[in-house]
Specification:
- Strand 7 (159-173) and strand 8 form a beta hairpin.
- It contains 3 helices and 11 strands.
- With 235 residues, the protein is mostly beta strands.
- The chain starts with a helix and ends with a strand.
- The longest helix is centred in the first third of the chain and has 24 residues, at 2-25.
- A 6-stranded mixed beta sheet has the order 4-1-2-3-6-5, with no helix packed on it.
């Protein structure tokens, strides 16, 4: 009987611990930046290009889509930058979403108010891993990513042409598409260039962009880009 009682007490303790942990993931994080949504991942669907997540808040459920990422069911996530698409048809899934949000900044780290940004949001920190094996010659009349970073002050406000490989593509965010471009060159720790464009392209495409260089561009919520190529067109 004593053995049974100890097992019972142990089970009760484990259940209480699990319940506490589950409740903790749903506690509202304080000091979140304006317009940040805190959600729980209820269902995760992976495809070649995107990760589709059914998320929930205290009073609703809805679908979001992000560039392919590791998302764990039952975990807490945060996002602030996205655009809603109605009656979006996914060819990969063979289904149509009545409503879905394409999100750029889906993260498991709280997006907190300005002045309390986590270190991962420091301007210039590379969010995209450096791809190996990329060796792309610059376009005729163009420059490399390394040249852009090393001479960024002289290029500010000017139109430049850069050729590279698309390593990430995020559509429909703030009325533009977001591209991460690498060409195999680097200036110190900087090897990845963010490009905004109206064009639609695929990851691993080699493209030549022509756009205007902006420095220290701040989109809020800690998303500050040391160098960004804006309103770019494919040449």
């Amino acid at each position: 009987m004593k053995i049974h009682r100890s097992i019972y007490v142990g089970l009760v303790a484990i259940i209480a611990l699990l319940t506490a942990c589950h409740t903790n993931t749903r506690e509202r994080v304080e000091n979140l930046a304006p317009n940040v949504s805190q959600v729980i991942a209820e269902e995760v669907i992976q495809t070649d290009s995107y990760t589709y997540v059914l998320v929930s808040t205290e009073d609703q459920e809805y679908w979001i889509a992000v560039s392919k990422a590791h998302v764990q069911k039952g975990e807490t996530y945060f996002w602030s930058e996205g655009i809603e698409m109605n009656n979006f048809a996914s060819n990969e899934l063979g289904r149509t979403f009545e409503s879905i949000y394409f999100v750029q900044d889906f993260t498991d780290q709280p997006i907190i108010s300005q002045g309390q940004m986590p270190s991962s949001s420091i301007a210039g920190k590379q969010p995209i891993p450096e791809k190996t094996g990329i060796d792309i010659q610059p376009a005729e009349g163009g420059i490399t990513i390394a040249e852009l970073y090393s001479n960024r002050k002289s290029y500010e406000g000017k139109t430049v042409k850069i050729r590279g490989k698309v390593v990430k593509f995020s559509p429909y965010i703030m009325d533009r598409n977001w591209v991460h471009l690498q060409d195999g060159t680097k200036d110190g720790d900087y090897y990845d260039l963010t490009v905004t464009t109206k064009a639609f392209i695929n990851v691993d495409d080699e493209v030549t962009f022509e756009g205007v260089v902006a420095l220290d561009k701040d989109f809020g919520a800690g998303y500050v880009y040391k160098v960004i190529l804006e309103n770019a067109e494919i040449k």
